[in-house]
Amino acid sequence: MLTSTQLKSNPSLFVFLPLFYTVWSDAVLTPSEIATIEGLIESQQWLSADEKTFLRSQVNPASPPSPDDLLSWKEEIKKAADQTTGKSLVDIGFQLVRNHGTISPQLLKEQGVLTNIEATLGFISHEAAYNFQSGKRESVTQQLTTQQTFDIGALEKILDGENAAIIKKVKTILDDPEFRYIDSGNLEIYRAKVLQWAQLLAAQGFGSIAYPKSCGGQDDMAAYFAIMETLSYHDLSLVVKFGVQFGLWGMSVYFLGTEKHHKKYLKDIGTLDLPGCFAMTEIHHGSNVKGVETTATYNHTTKTITVNTPHKNARKEFIGNAALHGHMATVFAKLIVEGKDYGVCAVIVPLRDKKGNTLSGITIEDCGRKMGLNGVDNGKIEFKNVVVPLENLLDRYTQITAEGKFSSPIASDNRRFFTMLGTLVGGRIGIPRAGLSASKSGLAIAIKYGDQRKQFGPEGAPEVPILNYRTHQRRLMPYLANVYALHFSLQYLTHRFLNRKEEEMQEIEALAAGLKSFTTWNATATLQECRECCGGKGYMSENRIDALKNDSDIFTTFEGDNTVLMQLVAKSRLTEFKHEFAHMNLFGILNYVADQAKTKITELNPIVIRNTDEDHLLDPQFHLDAFRYRERNILTSAAKRLKRHIDEGMDSFDAFNVSQHHLVQVGFAYIERIVLEKFIDQIQNTADKNCQAILKKLCALFALNQIDKNKGWYLEQGYLEGVKTKAIRKLLNQLCWDVRQEAVPLVNAFAIPDSLLAAPIATVK
Amino acid sequence: MLTSTQLKSNPSLFVFLPLFYTVWSDAVLTPSEIATIEGLIESQQWLSADEKTFLRSQVNPASPPSPDDLLSWKEEIKKAADQTTGKSLVDIGFQLVRNHGTISPQLLKEQGVLTNIEATLGFISHEAAYNFQSGKRESVTQQLTTQQTFDIGALEKILDGENAAIIKKVKTILDDPEFRYIDSGNLEIYRAKVLQWAQLLAAQGFGSIAYPKSCGGQDDMAAYFAIMETLSYHDLSLVVKFGVQFGLWGMSVYFLGTEKHHKKYLKDIGTLDLPGCFAMTEIHHGSNVKGVETTATYNHTTKTITVNTPHKNARKEFIGNAALHGHMATVFAKLIVEGKDYGVCAVIVPLRDKKGNTLSGITIEDCGRKMGLNGVDNGKIEFKNVVVPLENLLDRYTQITAEGKFSSPIASDNRRFFTMLGTLVGGRIGIPRAGLSASKSGLAIAIKYGDQRKQFGPEGAPEVPILNYRTHQRRLMPYLANVYALHFSLQYLTHRFLNRKEEEMQEIEALAAGLKSFTTWNATATLQECRECCGGKGYMSENRIDALKNDSDIFTTFEGDNTVLMQLVAKSRLTEFKHEFAHMNLFGILNYVADQAKTKITELNPIVIRNTDEDHLLDPQFHLDAFRYRERNILTSAAKRLKRHIDEGMDSFDAFNVSQHHLVQVGFAYIERIVLEKFIDQIQNTADKNCQAILKKLCALFALNQIDKNKGWYLEQGYLEGVKTKAIRKLLNQLCWDVRQEAVPLVNAFAIPDSLLAAPIATVK
User: Residue A299 pairs with which residues in a beta bridge?
Assistant: First the structure.
């Protein structure tokens, strides 16, 4: 075209060049686009018939320009684009004409028509020039960068709290080259390495830290939890190995045994000289552990207990430390005395001699490769009439008298069993705290990568960090808010547990069960999202999301299956209701109904349910009201539903089953309300104003994200109207955009040592 | 108590025994429970002062009964419970009195009071006896079992369709002991095994089946997809190895090359004598592949092309077959001719000699261990000025003339590149079909396990299969419905692709991108749920959910990142709109507005939005209307939103970014509507009435589950009211309950050979 005689004789034809170039270089030249352009050409009265024919020939799909034509057109247009301040194709076209001659008055009259055509073809006039200029485009998306409005060290201090010293110590130890990660492919090498790591930690006194001082410990349970949490920035196999040895095995001896057991075993357990197992789960009884079938039969003549596996499916399964390293085990079994079954007891059974040879009567099978945690040697254990002395019975709750009779401070088998389990609730604190650390590691990796990784960008401008994309922010920022929220709740749970009173145990157990479920499910979801957000890089084991996800995946199952636990939480909540309903006299019922009605009046205020003011939507009081309303409403409706079914004669087991989905929601609503309350408490207690400000943002993000997730429910109830849920969604996106700017400092406040984070993609370049 | 003088002298006191036993054996004896019972005792005028003192002493927390007391109480109560038809504690109490004497008239008068106390304490009167009887309780939950209303073979036939023969052949081959799974821990052994498996498949002619007959193939692309899908019941590393070799490497030569390349290479590729790679992705350019920086510079003097990696981050990355086995690669690079950049071309570059030694100028680094697919040898490739002859240029779309000039049938770089990618869209059909098979395997394992695995149960009755629990059903049944739904959509997509016309390509590409995203995300979610639903067993590698999940996890990333693809789908949908809006004259706009208004009138009918009739809720027309309304509404609002932003002067890149979340929903709404339509089509075309009936149920489950998921949106729009979304939730639970009964036959219809499913927990005992 450029060399055509027509252009030379009438430079005004240059006005079409940007248009022609753009339609050819665009995806497809459709018939209607051709028709539009042909119509335009036809309508231009200043063109001669020859010129029209020539111009039409330039948009004929049967004879497209050559690639070289297009390249030279582009060069020509670029020159003109740089010379004009106009941004539209027509502006550039006019400049081209000027570069080759002068603009005829007839052409000038057509400017409006040409501009219309440009719009009709769907081009954005104020951006056309970007295709031919470079470095001039400055979109908001590409300009967004990391900011920092708070002191990272100050926030780290808030997170670490009273445990700062032990956390620092653990990090220092783990930073040692001895703790460098190894490939997880070879089970033998990996398991040996994890054992060695655990021994190094024991040598630091970490293993026994929660045990009594008389047994080599420091009586510091708070430190134990902080160690578990900090170790979880490292290999999670090590964490679980550590937890099996010092938590499950050691604590079962500590809490279910008495002084004689403490003296005999705890010191060696704490130093890892006596590796052991916690043998509760059986093949046929996992969640329903009360149904274990292994027997522990007392023989008064010999004052011994015979431990036996009655059939293959009563073998102990998934037992950590069993396949290779455990020398002893706390075995949970039905205690039989004089032919009578006294329910589940715990008894210490030796598995291997000092050389590691399996003892007679014991058969152990390796569970083999697992989805994760392959540094832990899980196994199945079978007992064939293994005889142990009576003193091996952990006798805090189950005793045999000198006369050979069963005795217990708790008469009911049921209550005794759940009391025993209750003493072990610490596991349901350690595991979520470990899962939280894994989530923090995953987010630190994905966020640091997303802040640096650039992909795509506006035409004519550099590529953009992927964390500047709204979907990427929506995928990661709410999880960042969640880990902050959960951090403070788990601190609260730990505090409640450490300062527990007997009468608070039911509440603390429900809290632990619920937070364990919420946090570990959140970990699974977070790490899955991190994997996907890091694309192929997230799939490479070297970047650690692989191990973080797969190692922590079982956290939703062990220490209690999450779905089962959430139902326990719900039942615990309903217990309160059972009393409330049952003991209510007329006056009480009237009060109750009035209270419910008051809620309706104050909270379902027609102005409030439609209130879309940003101040209101960001107000923690609105969040608390919404969370509490949901909790109370779901709990009440579940109670009523159950009562209705049972009143109608439905079997209560069926009634609970029909309502199961509802009950799980009761558990969630309760936990979410607690998490929000504790986050708000934390903010109120934060003196540093800058830290307080960012925590406030995170808290609003957490709260609004939950409300958005549950918006179907809120709309169903009429608690929110569509106009408000839409405003919430918009604000949520805005909060993600705001938090993204501080996302890197926020993950830096976790202060995960580089040697532990280790992912090459998380390294700042 | 039983031996007390009081009981002996007044057997009527036995009436309290069941109550006392129950409060002691129950979880905790609360102060208010004690107060209630003490009040009851006090109110009984037939009791003497001594008797009252005695009875009160039995509920004193300071002196609980011994475990032996409780055991003997229970024995006593059991006897009575078996002798009465009454179910309440009072009924049993009366029977106990009868067993030891006669019921006094005074006691008889108190029956009502006693029953009230029982209720006040929160016991369910009609169930109390179950605690003391065994085998009499028959809850609905425990009675639910697997049914079968259709012929499994008939359904299998419907699923396999025209590909039944090749599917059968592939299954037969895979059933051979040679294909037994091996441990994935050792990369070297595993990769060698996968290569050997691929060679065995090639020997069967599976590798070349899609290639022209002249090149040793059978010109049967349909069979190729069926093979991929069936292989995916086996090890997914093998599937990907197979896909890299015969799909990516082979098809790039086939579709981007011309006859000379076909003749020279395809036969050896099909037999795996010439293993190769598809080297497109670079470290810095994954999703944005158009930005690859590797150069292919043409030298006319020598008629050669020099391939070069300009910097470390332009290395080819994640390239399958690269680390060990590939001898050649199709390399995507910017073609430079006479100093000018003509955009991306594809050129064949040898990597290794026949002995497997890396050639000069080539540096390959092993990507090492990955989250999954460890049987595939991914690597990074760097080229240092590697010279290849001009004939290695795959020249269907990019040619060099005899004069050394660049030439192409497609002038625009952009269009040429996307045309080239378009020819490779088959990968976006093979991957979702593979992901679907992985989902089917996971569901087959989890459902067969859930049907057999028993845990918990009503008091006094056997434990219940976990698949009888409502939450378990809600977790798995919708995914079962999804795989059936997606099966038919993917059949449809394949059919469209095999019978494609040039002008349909844009639509088919959008369809493939969307279904690939939807199906692979669904696979990730399905397999995660299957893992959790199988508890600890799901974590053991022997049960295969581990590998299924981890191997398929990358499916959401490769062949196009799902989030990016869903935005492409949305943009493709908006293109239609762009034309609609742009070319609309006044008449057109009026029509459009009228059409929108009509929708409002017919679909937002106030009766319909509140209609909770089951017939209506199950009506496919309701489902279709809802899906279509959502699709149109989201698309329209996204278009308007973008237009508003751009009209207001926002940079279009920012406008798209602000709307990104919305755009992803456009993609989902489109794909979901297609999936539903194709499922309904399939049902209409199913002649077998029994199969039709079960497919109808699955389709309703799929549709209502999606509506329930999106209920927040529907409520926001006013398309559904709360009363209707609640009815949908209830019906959804009912459908899960119904489908659960046929769940095992439904997964059996996938006809996955036992040797491939292989999970011990899925074996019928």
Answer: A304
Chain B residues with CB under 8 Å of A415 CB are 25-28
| Euclidean distance between CA atoms B257 and B261, whole angstroms | 6
CA angle B315, B318, B321 (to 5 degrees): 105
Interface residue of B553, B574, B578, B662 to substitute, partner A, most A CBs within 10 Å? B553
Considering the four listed CATH numbers 1.10.357.10, 3.40.50.300, 3.30.450.20, 1.20.140.10, the one that applies to the domain covering B428-763 is: 1.20.140.10
pLDDT per residue as tens digits for the range B191-226: 999 999 999 999 999 999 999 999 999 999 999 999
Q: How confident is the model at residue B603, as a pLDDT?
A: 62
Give pTM, 2 decimals.
0.95
d(CA B287, CA B518): 18
Give the minimum alpha-carbon distance from A705 to chain B in angstroms, rounded to a whole number.
13
Q: Which long-range contacts (CB under 8 A, 24 or more apart) does B181-186 make?
A: B181/B235, B181/B544, B181/B758, B183/A369, B184/A369, B184/B237, B184/B374, B184/B375, B184/B541, B184/B547, B185/A185, B185/A186, B185/A187, B185/A369, B186/A185, B186/A186
B660/A469 touch (CB, cutoff 8 Å), yes or no: yes
Mean pLDDT, rounded, for A683-706? 98
pLDDT of amino acid A765: 63
Predicted confidence (pLDDT) per residue in B674-696, tens digit: 999 999 999 999 999 999 999 99
What is the CATH number assigned to the segment(s) A176-424?
Answer: 2.40.110.10
User: What is the longest distance spanned by two Cα atoms in chain A?
Assistant: 123
Q: How many other C-beta atoms lie within 10 A of the C-beta of residue B137? A: 19
Q: What is the pLDDT of residues B414-468, one digit of tens each?
A: 889 989 999 889 999 999 999 999 999 999 999 999 999 999 999 888 999 999 9
What distance in Å separates the CA atoms of residue B284 and residue B276, rounded to the nearest whole number? 23
Least confident of A195-204, B374-383, B566-575: B566-575
Residues A67, B411: C-beta atoms closer than 8 Å:
yes
Q: How far apart are CA B569 and CA B514, in angstroms?
A: 6
Count of Cβ atoms closer than 10 Å to residue B513 Cβ:
24
One-letter amino acid at B399 equals Q
In chain B, the residue whose alpha carbon lies closest to the alpha carbon of A414 is B25
Domain edges within chain B = 5-136, 176-424, 428-763
Q: Which chain B residues are within 8 Å of A653, Cβ to Cβ?
A: 137, 139, 141-142, 457-459, 461
Picking from A287, A546, A657, the nearest residue to B371 by CB comes out as A546
Question: A718 vs B717: CB contact, 8 Å cut-off?
Answer: no
Work out the end-to-end distance of chain A between its first and last CA atoms, rounded to an integer number of angstroms: 48
Give the model confidence (pLDDT) of B332-354 as tens digits: 999 999 999 999 999 999 999 99
pLDDT at A576 over 90: no
Identical fold at A176-424 and A428-763?
no
Reported as a single tens digit per residue, the pLDDT across B590-616 is: 455 455 555 555 567 888 889 999 999
DSSP per residue, B192-235: HHHHHHHHHHHHTT-TTTTS-GGGT----HHHHHHHHHHHTTS-
Q: With H, G, I as helix, E, B as strand and everything else as coil, classify residue B349.
A: strand
- In this structure, what token pair is assigned to residue A737? 């955009």
Which of A297, A513, A298, A348 is closest to A421 using CA atoms? A513
Where would I find the H helices in B151-186? 152-160, 164-174
Probe site for chain A from B651, B726, B737 (most A CB atoms < 10 A): B651
Contacts of B284 in chain A (CB under 8 A): 454
CA of A326 vs chain B CAs: smallest distance (Å): 20
Distance from CA of B259 to the nearest CA of A (A): 24
